[in-house]
Amino acid sequence: MSHIILGIESSCDDTSAAVVKDAYLLSNVIASQAVHKDFGGVVPELASRAHEQNIVPVVSRALELAGVTADQIDAIAFTRGPGLLGSLLVGTSFAKTLSIALNKPMVMVNHLQGHILAGFVRQYDKPVCEPSFPFLCLLVSGGNSQIVKVSSPTEYEILGQTIDDAVGEAFDKCSKMMGLGYPGGPIIDKLAKQGDPERFKFSKPHIPGLDYSFSGVKTSLLYFVRDEIAKDPDFMEKNKEDICASFQKTLIDILLDKLVKAAKQTGIKEIAIGGGVSANSALRERITLEGKKRGWNTYLPEFKFTTDNAAMIAIAGYFRFLAGERAPLDVAPVSRLSDF
Ligand code: KG4
Hints:
The protein is α/β, with parallel strands linked by helices.
């Protein structure tokens, strides 16, 4: 019997709706919010207002593109958290309203697990290429940096995670402080392509186990740039490509060092990456090379599934629906992962 799942994502600044039928993607609509550009970051109140405006047209369009009517849906999957509370509230309330109006069940999804399962979204025009279980996922986004052992679509164990900043946050904050713009990840990625990654050295953390830390390297970069600008006001302009390449290399070294450790400790050679930072071209190259060297099977998500999207929420919801999970109508969104 086939199952059709409508996914709704509203955890940050993208309003998205997608439809999957038995793991195959029928539609994936994303409305990004330009309103935050002038502020150098996401403004939570503006984000929730924009979600309110976008959600009805986005869901309608997703159903239309999928060629399904609302009453053909078997369940509504929505992001419960983590994320911005006001933004999550819009998606959650909309899912509840739809659930009551259509008399269809709801399934709640952890946004991070959505990122981890993004590679399981099947497309009719592409070959299926999915990690087998158990696999390790390097989950790298604006709010999280984790190494997760995934034993099944509903079983997750966090083996290591950041004790301070997320890697995406390090990209974003440093880019902003260096006057390069927001969001920092894609900007640094682009500039780094023309730079020498070996030119500058930034201090690396010494954290035991599989946990990460990115605040030290961020501070090391910012002090370095400040001191050099004091000597030569044009230092940044003259060297930004090399600074970006060296900084990016340091972040990737830190990420891969612990990932290699985790693979050795668990003996798992199925390795995936997910989250916004998995769009980083140097990280994708390095993890592929590392995989070849170590006999891993590496799985990189398509670019369109690296950033926030409802396709990954629909697929995570699909697996949870099959596992018999249903969300109660009094479910409340949660902003932090620890509250899930
Ligand atoms: O997963 P995501 O869209 O949102 C969260 O749930 O956090 O990730 C956003 C993060 C931002 O920090 C952004 O700078 C980063 O992903 N990012 C990148 C790249 N594209 C987006 N970081 C490095 N290189 C990129 N190409």
